[in-house]
Amino acid sequence: MTDQVTYTNTKQGDKPKTQDHFKIVAAIALLFSFGLTMFLFSAAYAKDIDTLRRAPELVWAFICGQPNPDGITLPLLLTISFMAVLVGGGLSLWTWWKTRH
Fold first, then answer.
1. Residue 32 in contact with residue 88, Cβ under 8 Å?
2. How far apart are CA 68 and CA 99, in angstroms?
3. CA distance 74 to 33
4. pTM score, whole prediction
5. Can you give the residue range of the structural domain that contains 80?
6. Is residue 38 a part of any domain in this protein?
7. How far is Cα 91 from Cα 26, in angstroms, rounded to an integer?
8. Window from 1-5, 69-73, 90-94 with minimum mean pLDDT
9. Taking a C-beta distance cutoff of 8 angstroms, is the pair 91, 31 a contact?
10. Per-residue three-class SS string for the chain
11. Predicted local distance difference test score (pLDDT) of residue 75
12. What is the total count of domains within the chain?
């Protein structure tokens, strides 16, 4: 015996909403974990508390294009981690707003 599966209310090429929702939740989780991992790597790279205290100053100087005598590695790591967490948060807010309206 064979079971026959019929789909109702779906057009050819339509994806179920659960697949799209899973992809968005996976992207949010990956962005948050990537951002937090990069932040931990940048904290380990800094190696002292004074450099971590100056982190906002270093990132702002990096964004404005001011050269840093210590190199661009730490500001770049901090900027990438901040942007990944920011995009993950924005995506989760967009998903929440989309399900509410």
1. yes
2. 44
3. 19
4. 0.66
5. 20-95
6. yes
7. 11
8. 1-5
9. yes
10. CCCCCCCCCCCCCCCCHHHHHHHHHHHHHHHHHHHHHHHHHHHHHHCCHHHHHCHHHHHHHHHHCCCCCCCCHHHHHHHHHHHHHHHHHHHHHHHHHHHHC
11. 84
12. 1
Using alpha carbons only, how large is the chain's radius of gyration in Å?
21
List C-alpha distances in Å: 46 to 53, 55, 72, 78: 10, 9, 12, 11
- Quote the CA–CA distance of 54 and 44 in Å, as a whole number: 15
Residue 75 maps to a domain: yes
Q: Is residue 43 part of a domain?
A: yes
| Reported confidence tier of residue 22, pLDDT bands at 50, 70, 90 | confident
| 8 A C-beta contact, residue 50 and residue 70 | no
